Amino acid sequence: MSLTKQFSIGFLVVLMLVFFGTVYINVNSFRTYIEDQLNSHAQDTATSLGLSISPYVGDQSTLPIVETMVNAIFDSGYYQSIVLKDMDGTVLLAKENPPAPQSVPDWFRELFPLQPPVAETEINSGWNIAGTMTVKSHPGKGYAQLWQNAQDTFRFTLLLFIIGSALLYAVLRIIITPIFAVVSASERISARDFSEIDDVPKTKELNLMVRAINKMAGILNKQHKELTAQAKSYYQTAYLDSLTQLGNKLALDNRLARLFSDKEQSPSGFLVIIRLSSLAHVNEAEGGQTADIYIKTLSHILTEQGAKVGAETYRVRGGDFVMLLENVNEERCCQLLDSLSDEFNAQTLPIYTNGFAHIGAARFNELTNKAQLLENADAALTTARATPKRWQLASQLEKRISQTEWREEFNRIIASKSVDIVRQPVKNFDGHNVYYECYARFKSKNSENYLPMSQLIAESEHLHFAGSLDLVILEKILTLYSPTSGETVAINLSPASFAEKSTIEKFVTLLSNFAAIAENIVIEVQEICLQHAPDNVHYLAEHLRKLNAKLTVERVGSSIAAFSHLRKLRPNYIKLDGSFTRNIHQSEDNQFFVRSLVNIAHGLNIQVIAELVEEEIEAQTLQELFVDYVQGYLYCQPCSWPELRTK
Q1: Angle 529-534-540 (CA atoms, 0-180°, nearest 5)?
Q2: Exposed/middle/buried for residue 339 (C-beta within 10 Å: 0-12, 13-18, 19+)
Q3: CA distance linking residue 625 with residue 30, whole number of Å
Q4: Residues near 624 by Cβ (< 8 Å), separated by ≥ 6?
Q5: Domains of the chain by residue range
Q6: Burial class (CB in 10 A: 0-12, 13-18, 19+), 392
Q7: Treating both helix axes as pointing N-terminal to C-terminal, what angle do 249-261 and 204-239 enclose, rounded to 10 degrees?
Q8: Alpha helix locations (H) across 191-312?
Q9: 124 within 8 A of 132, measured Cβ to Cβ
Q10: Which residues pair with 325 in a beta bridge?
Q11: Element of type H or E holding 568
């Protein structure tokens, strides 16, 4: 039972006892007073009436006169009985009224009985006693007065009871409200929300309690901000170029390591190298300050143009920049290169003796070798200096599916819901499965072979089918899921699905239709979505909490976008970007950053997953850094959904 109920019940019981006790004592005291009044009234009447009729008692002829005098008194209704007897005890005259009053309830008369006394007086005839008269007052008038007094007392005491209860409620609110505020603040602190209590009570004891909680929340909030600032600062120092604030060579190496070790995400796209053609001349002829302006100009152009296609931009050294275009087809890549070429031509100045910049690009997919990719891009860069547009693609895809064919494939997949699911477990270091991450495979229309995922992802985003495909995948997973298994499964939502809120609303509606198993569903969202569509991510997270479903933010660490969102978003898990996992035992920078990120996550009660774990030494290092769970080929390769689930 809550403290409020205990206080309320206790005080109400006391007030009720006071209420009924007051009513009873008052009415009972008034009853005694009325009995005394009845006694006095009866005695006075007996005495005065006895004196009045004494001349007429003893003579039968004057008895009518006596009766007339008695009737005059008795008919007033204040007497229950008047009896006149002679000395022999013979009743000469008797008058009597019914004892029960009509306006008073029986239960009240039983609870507060009136015992009207009998007054007796002697009747003298000369010097002789002629008889006796007994007078008994009628209790009806007394009951009526007692009943009226009881009603008045009850009403007045009830009014006081109501006023007392209201005051009690007000006092309890004054006491309980700060206590509830402290409880709420404690719960927020448990959920890693360190906001303070604004309404500080003036009551000394409550004031001290609230101030103590606020002080603790302030200290924890300060510590969290310090950890976050430390992680951001280290990220900027270790992975950002100080001049342009773009990712540096270490960040690019980490990104490529993740890209070519992720065997399930089927990476595809283009690696673009941009080189400042005249940097050496500008640096020598104009000085370092002008050279820095030259570099910043290119950085601004690349950032502005790259944002249109979701490109990641890095400055690797001197005048060399790299753009990574993931899930972009050749058409969009060529459009970007043309736009960059036009921007470079617009920047032409006499000091750029060899031109502003030139570009080389090479395609990659899940089968691409990193060394070969860099070699192809570098070769294209060399050739680009002599081309009219000063850009060059290293190669074309040997086999290309047209956009018309892709559109037909997508419509077929969505209509027939023809998707195969494979799963890879996320495990703790004891080997127990936490949940299964699901991946989709799509067979082509005319063969048993799967469509190339590297091209499929790029074209689905380009042709705006990504959200519909994600819905098909989620529906397939929900249909295959067996509640009796007790397993937890996860689905990845593509960044393109977050472009429109209507798509997210469809996901929420679909999950709501399977609300009974929603608690066993995990939705994985890429960190980049927090940059491009933070409102839609928060909208999804809010509805997942209502359905008791879980949320994972994956690829955390590829930028610092997640840091400012984690506290409000409150995901169940974050998944470290795979670039930090690869050879982490050999990189002190990555170890320090992961340790900082784990401290921040654990401070917010968020569990941390490391993906793409392929070596035992990597797993051991991650465990020493207090990472909670691991996923990768070291533990299990993706396998098909158990046949039992498809039946």
Answers
A1: 90
A2: middle
A3: 84
A4: none
A5: 3-162, 191-239, 249-393, 403-646
A6: buried
A7: 90
A8: 204-239, 249-261, 279-286, 288-306
A9: no
A10: 270
A11: helix 566-569
Residue of higher predicted confidence among 135 and 298: 298
What is the side-by-side order of every strand in the sheet holding 312-317?
312-317, 320-326, 269-276, 357-364, 391-393
Residue type, 253: D
Q: What is the pLDDT of residues 194-203, one digit of tens each?
A: 667 767 766 6
Residue 396 predicted with pLDDT over 60: no
Q: Domain 3-162 - what CATH class?
A: alpha beta
Identity of the amino acid at 498: F
Q: How far apart are CA 566 and CA 557, in angstroms?
A: 12
Polymer length in residues for the chain: 647
Query: Is this structure's pTM higher than 0.85?
Result: no
Tokens representing 498 are: 């977050």
DSSP state of 195: P
Place of tokens 């992680």: 231
- CATH topology for the 249-393 domain: Alpha-Beta Plaits (3.30.70)
pLDDT (tens digit per residue) in 79-101: 777 787 777 777 777 878 776 56
What is the architecture of the domain spanning 403-646? Alpha-Beta Barrel (3.20)
Strand partners, 552: 524, 573
At 157, the amino acid letter reads T
